[in-house]
Amino acid sequence: MFVFNPSFSSVNHYLETLPPDWPGGFWLHWGVFVVIIFAFVMPMIMAFIYLERRGLGRFQVRLGPNRVGPFGILQPVADAIKVLIKEDIVPAKGDKWVHWLAPVVAFVPTLMIFAVVPFQDGALLADLNIGILYVVAISSISVVGIFMAGWGSNNKYSLIGAMRTIAQVVSYEIPLVLSIIGVVLLAGSLSMNKIVEAQTIPFILLQPLGFLIFFLAACAEINRTPFDLLEAESEIVAGFHIEYSGMKFAFFYLAEYAEALAISAIITTLFLGGWRGPILPPFLWFIIKVFGVFFLIFWVRSTIPRLRIDQVMAFTWKCLLPLALLNLLITGIEVIVLPEALPWPVIFVNLAIMAVLVVLWSKFSRLGGGRVEV
Amino acid sequence: MKFERYGIGIAKGMALTLKHLFRHPITTQYPEERLTVSRRTRGNELVWDKEKCTGCATCAKSCPQGAIQIITSVKTEENKYLVEKFEVDIGYCIFCGLCVESCPYEALFMSYDYERARYRRQELVMAKEGLLLSDTKQLSGYARPKVEATLPLQTLLLDRDKVKK
Questions:
Q1: Which of A59, A356, A361 has the highest number of chain B CBs within 10 A, making it the mutation to test binding with B?
Q2: Rounded to 5 degrees, what are φ and ψ at B35?
Q3: CA angle, A4 then A76 then A47, to 5°
Q4: Mean predicted confidence (pLDDT) in A328-350
Q5: Which of A57, A59, A362 minimises the CB distance to B17?
Q6: Chain B partners of A359 at a C-beta cutoff of 8 Å?
Q7: Is residue A58 part of a domain?
Q8: Residue-wise over B22-59: b if at least 16 C-beta within 10 A, else e?
Q9: What local confidence, expressed as pLDDT, does residue A230 receive?
Q10: Contacts of B17 in chain A (CB under 8 A)
């Protein structure tokens, strides 16, 4: 009789004792990890919403929500209940099926990303040998959901927001993937677990420029504030989800934070050494690092105002893309020429290269002139 | 060669917001906390001194809004007016202070009260007992130099210290 013990290692141990051709093994693994992913993602989204609202409050020298429950911990629950009992409105002239499907199409791919995120050594739903490629492919699908929302709502603001998202995400996908390739070159594998295993020192040190590019591109990818043009309140009211209410709006809201969680988890895995760390158990290290990355994300949100659409596009094509290409070139040279080099000199060389390149690009690229000659 | 836009501005901004993260929040949690108000405010209430008032009704005559209603009867044995009714409709009051200035016996004062909202329109009509000096109402020095001399020095109108209720 199988007694479920929630710690990862016991599950792994149990799986290892199974004969590899045992028919129940796959489905047991699948079932256990689907439950683990849900049990991880939903509370983490709640925690993120709470932390972001409280943290943003403190960044703005106010308190943030603190009325519901001790320290306002139950605020996300209260929000969820409020949203659930709201009326579900579908625009009369909207495309009803597309309007209905959009929240699901936006939310589900984000959840699917967690299938390849290793919570601990080997503790992941599917150790795909093309893990990071899977992440890139799957995460792009949620953009389709956002565009469906913009189209199905039959509203000019939501359509503008959705158009902006498409332009922005397609552009930022390129530096994002190019900066991932640097990590993949160093690790020698696309599997998320192997990438973590390869990080005897976190890749943020070996790939500082890659981390910078990935972080900025990822912020744009998940539409966090410096790049949140799709829902720019001051211009297009709420962007793609303007016509959404009730549970469907909640799905978009969840998807936004699930994307932030996914990106935090991917940055943790690719650049911060994933579950590796001393003393504490590995999954705890993973969660701590995820929270650290999320803190960085909403710190940026609390500081930097929204860019204009032309600035956003110029930033990726004129700044991030050339830098990502150069980063790839430099990493490739280092991997080929100095495969056995000591890590520390390489780290300092890479940091110096990053500083020089960033300063050089500040000189070369002219962002935000904003003058469009027609 | 001028170096611009290499992230120093962003770094400064990030440092500033991080500093704000550790500042004490300025929010006043109103029902539990309230700000201390300077004692030298002009005031938004009236205080009526039952002993000094002779019922001359100068205040009622000077009131531009007609908010003060005073009804007196004659106490023949002491040769005095007996104030039967002294009512101020705060809903009409514009806090001009003319009643306080005109009172010949210094029986009316401006005063300050933190919470002035009422649930009913009728509760805005303050009768005798509601106009007396109480713990929540403090005298203001407006047009009363003797009171003013006893007050502490002027501070910021709203002090940063919060009083826990």
A1: A59
A2: -80, 150
A3: 55
A4: 79
A5: A59
A6: 3, 6
A7: no
A8: eeeeeeeeeeeebeebebbbebebbbbbeeebebbbbb
A9: 72
A10: 59, 299, 302-303
Its pTM stands at 0.78
Residue ranges per structural domain of chain B: 8-164
- B103 versus A371: which is more confidently predicted? B103
Interface contact A61-B29, CB threshold 8 A: no
Q: Tell whether the model's pLDDT for residue B156 goes beyond 70.
A: no
Q: How far is A294 from chain B (nearest CA, A)?
A: 15
Instruction: Judge contact between A262 and A139, C-beta under 8 A.
Output: yes
- Domain count along chain A: 1
Give the pLDDT mean for A34-47: 86
pLDDT digits (tens, 9 = 90+) for B5-17: 667 778 888 888 8
| CB-facing half-sphere around the CA of A139: CA atoms within 13 A | 30
Domain range holding A245? 89-363
A297 to chain B: closest CA residue: B14
ipTM of predicted complex? 0.70
CATH number of B8-164: 3.30.70.3270
Return the minimum-mean-pLDDT range out of A117-126, A236-245, A246-255, A325-334.
A117-126
Q: How many CB atoms lie within 10 A of CB A167?
A: 16
Chain A CB within 8 Å of residue B16 CB: yes
Cβ within 8 Å, pair B7-A302: no
* CA–CA gap between residue A173 and residue A218 (Å, rounded): 8
Find, in chain A, the residue whose alpha carbon is nearest to that of B14.
Answer: A303
Q: What is d(CA A186, CA B92) in angstroms, rounded to the nearest whole number?
A: 79
